[in-house]
């Protein structure tokens, strides 16, 4: 194991930087350089969770009384500070996640700034309503925060996904204890430091550690009044059981196997760029909304596959900090081995054809990190695990279609329903397909990212609840109280 200037970063509990009660640390590695340790962070236990949750519970008593527009002003200051430190945060994200700085990490920081500004603005939109009743009766509702929010996030866009919990939770008067992902806590700890500068102690607490230790302790703590989780569907199910044990609400942003449907009129270079963007190759395909099932109409199949293969061949896979790199490395060995397992399965499956990419070279500079090339497979009938399961790597499965009803049926024949992409210029086709696809987010002729203001979240096993929007904030972080007054 290579140690390269290892620093010990600390958690944020009750406004102070904190080690764990046991003083144990664990290593954070740079996935672009196998075995190199870039920092150590505290290994939080149930004891640390208890300290953090109690601090958040204490802070809730006064934070809920702070006027929402004042809370919004503080969030705006956090956004400004993130902007000022943007490049440093982007470099941290690139180093710990393997995501390329130019095509991904800087964009993540930009999104963090937009998220904080958006929720700063809508903080004062937390309103109730009045209800028409009898003459001598008045009835109205008000929205109130829950209290301590327990939040858990994954590693693939760690600071953005943490901001999507912290900003709306705090804007609506809750306090929060957030557990960062064990592979990528460093950018989140930088954000935590900024939050500590502007928010009173205990309002935002960030802990680091393992899911089955401090994660479970957080989801079972009696003072946590609501759980918000982003991660895999499998862990989401266990977390929902935890919520059921205490009858507390749970929001889940989970996995996906999102389809892209290309109609005959969409055989252009611009569409090819859009497909690549929707597939999230810039994040090595490690995105919940990656469009990993590509359905191409028979009439354009060969021509579009050729264009796609040519474009993907131009992408440069390399060091995430290199400005030339379009793609960086996979997050860790476990994920790398999992993706390679899928690729091997595709190569050995008679029903599946490898078009480009494949298993990584065992020698050469890229073998120093967990790098994989963009990989395209084709399969006539979609009858393969590669077309059904979330791979979370740069692997795209292409399938032909002829009949619109059949392709919609194939698209919907999935336990997931997070995102979908439709490529056509025909307006009636757009309207018809958009209403038939079972997904929480449908993009037509666009492969870009989510944007604050528009709800994002899954149908089916891709999740429960919405993020990114005012509605999402109100539904996830406030509860309605109805008040009736008889005069
Ligand atoms: P994961 O479910 O393994 O881990 C996510 C987080 O949960 C980590 O912080 C982990 O420590 C914690 N955790 C694990 N077990 C736990 C337990 N028993 N109790 C409490 N916490 C526990 O997911 P991952 O591999 O880190 O991330 C990839 C997954 O996240 C993919 O499935 C992806 O689709 C999904 N994701 C979804 C969205 C979305 O918005 N829908 C966004 C990003 C990622």
Please outline what is shown here.
The chain is of the alpha/beta class and 487 residues long.
Fold topology:
Layout (H helix, E strand, L loop, with lengths): L1 E7 L2 E3 L2 E3 L6 E6 L5 E7 L3 H18 L4 H17 L1 H12 L3 H22 L7 E2 L5 E9 L2 E5 L5 H14 L3 E5 L6 H13 L5 E4 L3 H10 L3 E7 L2 H14 L3 E4 L5 E4 L6 H10 L14 E5 L3 H14 L18 H15 L4 E5 L18 E5 L15 E7 L2 H9 L3 E2 L1 E5 L3 H10 L4 E4 L14 E2 L2 E2 L5 H8 E9 L1
Parallel strand pairs: 1-5, 8-9, 8-11, 9-10, 11-12, 13-14, 13-19, 14-17, 16-17, 19-20
Antiparallel strand pairs: 2-3, 4-5, 6-7, 7-23, 12-22, 15-16, 18-21
Helix pairs in contact: 1-7, 2-4, 2-6, 3-4, 3-6, 4-5, 9-10
The structure holds nicotinamide-adenine-dinucleotide.
Core attributes:
7-stranded mixed beta sheet; 6-stranded mixed beta sheet; single chain; 38% helix; 23% strand; binds nicotinamide-adenine-dinucleotide; alpha/beta; 487 residues
Structural class category: alpha/beta
Proportion of residues in β-strands: 15-25%
Helix fraction, binned, reads 25-40%
Low-pLDDT regions: none
Radius of gyration using CA atoms only: 23 Å
Q: How many DSSP-defined strands?
A: 23
Global outline = globular
Pfam family, one: Aldedh
Organism: Metabacillus herbersteinensis
Family: Belongs to the aldehyde dehydrogenase family.
Keywords: Oxidoreductase
């Amino acid at each position: 194991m290579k140690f390269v200037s290892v620093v010990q970063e600390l958690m944020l509990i009750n406004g102070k930087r904190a080690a764990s009660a046991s003083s144990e640390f664990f290593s954070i590695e740079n996935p672009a350089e196998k075995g190199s340790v870039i920092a150590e962070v505290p290994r939080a236990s149930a004891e640390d969770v208890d300290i953090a949750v109690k601090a958040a519970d204490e802070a809730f008593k006064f934070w809920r009384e702070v006027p929402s527009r004042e809370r919004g002003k503080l969030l705006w200051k956090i956004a400004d500070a993130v902007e000022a430190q943007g490049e440093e945060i982007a470099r941290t994200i690139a180093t710990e996640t393997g995501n390329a700085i130019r095509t991904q990490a800087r964009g993540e920081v930009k999104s963090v700034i937009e998220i904080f500004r958006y929720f700063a603005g809508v903080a004062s939109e937390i309103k109730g309503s009045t209800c028409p009743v009898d003459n001598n009766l008045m009835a109205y509702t008000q929205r109130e925060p829950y209290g301590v929010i327990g939040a858990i996030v994954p590693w693939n866009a760690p600071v953005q996904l943490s901001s999507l919990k912290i900003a709306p939770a705090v804007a609506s008067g809750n306090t929060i204890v957030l557990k960062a992902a064990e592979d990528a806590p460093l950018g989140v700890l930088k954000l935590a430091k900024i939050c500590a500068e502007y928010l009173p102690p205990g309002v935002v607490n960030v802990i680091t550690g393992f899911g089955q230790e401090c994660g479970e302790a957080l989801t079972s703590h009696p003072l946590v009044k609501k759980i918000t989780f982003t991660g895999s569907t499998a862990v989401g199910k266990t977390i929902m059981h935890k919520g059921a044990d205490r009858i507390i609400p749970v929001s889940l942003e989970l996995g996906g196997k999102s389809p892209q449907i290309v109609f005959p009129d969409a055989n252009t270079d611009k569409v090819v760029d859009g497909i690549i963007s929707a597939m999230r190759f810039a994040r090595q395909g490690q995105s919940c909304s990656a469009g990993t099932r590509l359905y191409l109409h028979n009439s354009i199949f060969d021509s579009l596959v050729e264009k796609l293969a040519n474009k993907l061949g131009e992408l440069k896979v390399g060091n995430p900090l290199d400005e030339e790199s379009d793609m960086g490395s996979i997050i860790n060995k476990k994920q790398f081995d999992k993706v390679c397992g899928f690729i091997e399965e595709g190569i050995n499956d008679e029903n599946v054809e490898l078009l480009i990419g494949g298993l990584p070279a065992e020698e050469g500079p890229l073998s120093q990190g967990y790098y994989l090339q963009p990989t395209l497979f084709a399969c006539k009938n979609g009858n393969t695990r590669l077309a059904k399961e979330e791979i979370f790597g740069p692997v795209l499965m292409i399938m032909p279609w002829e009949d619109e009803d059949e392709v919609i049926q194939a698209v919907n024949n999935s336990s997931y329903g997070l995102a979908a992409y439709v490529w056509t210029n025909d307006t009636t086709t757009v309207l018809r397909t958009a209403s038939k696809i079972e997904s929480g987010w449908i993009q037509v002729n666009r492969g870009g990212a989510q944007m604050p203001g528009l709800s994002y979240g899954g149908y089916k096993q891709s999740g429960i609840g919405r993020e990114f929007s005012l509605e999402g904030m109100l539904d996830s972080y406030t509860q309605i109280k109805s008040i009736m007054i008889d005069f």
